[in-house]
Amino acid sequence: MSLRIVVTVKYVPDATGDRHFADDLTVDRDDVDGLLSELDEYAVEQALQIAENADDAEVTVLTVGPEDAKDALRKALSMGADKAIHVEDDDLHGTDAIGTSLVLAKAIEKAGFDLVVSGMASTDGTMGVVPALVAERLGVPQVTLLSEVSVEDGVVTGRRDGDAASEQLQAQLPAIVSVTDQSGEARYPSFKGIMAAKKKPVQSWDLSDLDIEAEEVGLDGAFTKVEVANERPARTAGTIVKDEGEGGKQLAEFLAGQKFI
Amino acid sequence: MAEVLVYVDHVDGAVRKPTLELLTLARRIGEPVAVALGNGAADTAATLAEHGAVKILTHDASEYADYLVVPKVDALQAAHEAVSPAAVLVPSSAEGKEIAARLALRIGSGIITDAVDLEAGDEGPVATQSVFAASFSTKSRVIKGTPVITVKPNSAAVEAAPAAGAVEALAVTFSDQATGTKVTGRTPRESTGRPELTEAAIVVSGGRGVNGAENFSIIEALADQLGAAVGASRAAVDAGWYPHTNQVGQTGKSVSPQLYIANGISGAIQHRAGMQTSKTIVAVNKDAEAPIFELVDFGVVGDLFDVVPQLTDEIKTRKG
Asked: What was the ipTM of the complex prediction?
């Protein structure tokens, strides 16, 4: 029996670009280059490693996003995923985390799965709650924020490094895992991988394919509303001194003036 | 007056500081009702009452320690049903966010994570968030259901506000999902004796310029003079010089202390995302062009191996 792995990925505005909001207070995707969220590369990597260690496995990469989000799928396919699913629909514009988890859960169910692998958070929204929400919707165990993960005999195990303790976790498949940037460097696509990716199947689904009504998602379906978004005023220029032997003392003087010492 | 549920983060009954900050924020919206779960839950009562909890709902069961997240969601859902609160506030830890999200989905509510401020509004609580590596500040509301909001550490002052703090047992029935993910082992973090990174009033961080694990001792020495937590940039963590639990930045901790001291850190967007909201920022870096200097209130262009020990000694001298 083939191990069916679905990796959820997000196409995000480049974090090193000049990110800002559109007029409707959604994330502006037009004026900044997009790419596969860096934190999702770790998910693709771990999914590929789990697949390589299984007798028979298939890795499907899934995204929900606009037309350009295909770039993220293409990157994951060139890393080695077998096929891709793109959920795209104009009515998805402005969907929040609760809505996104609905679309992902329905798509994952339709695709069929034994294991879902996600990143720890997106680099734009940075909430880090979608894997837990998808687990709640699918009714499967969440084995999240893992720095180490493995799958054997239908059981997923992993290490979750928390603030207070490091925990060993274990759950039966089907399950959803999320992995951190500590789980292992993501591979670079090879030239061969990039060429092969061009021939790999990318399915497109819209909301009707998933039996989701337009009003359940998008800005209208959102459970939260951004009312104001203001660019943080630039910090007022500080004092910068060159160390000529007294730099540490000058810094101490500043800290004393601010009552830190 | 409306009640506000506050999820208590505690270790065997010792309440962690972010929960006390939540009580300060909860009192702006209504009367705080605390929910404390697991071993030592009842021991939290005195501290919580001192800081404004009118009621403390407690429940202890082995499930809270033996299984991940879901038992706590079940309990918080039971508390939500019992209290019908105006809002649910949860500390913005990794686990807190997961608990809050699943609760929100179950009760048909929206969720806002990582709020850095919270105020009462005509149409419900308004949460301030710092987004896009803290280059924007947003104000948001939950517009469906009971607002579920997670709040970052250091978002409010801890205030004494004695309240009744009546302890009541919470009745919890665990769901079928509760035992889905088993915790088969737990290794507590070794205590460094320093403050928790996200809770510290002062953070002293080291980056690429520290140039080796052994050199972090000079960062630690400065931190200890200031009673500060120690942070590290991703470059320093990836090089294996300092543990990932101390990483400040997009994929590590996000900190907002009174004072942040960046040593040998260039200030890439990765790092800025985690410290840009600090009240006062100072930096020591050899490179006068380093982007970190765009953020600082005071910067020293110089070799950290000269400047930092001199600063540490000077603080020692001044303290007498």
From this structure: 0.95
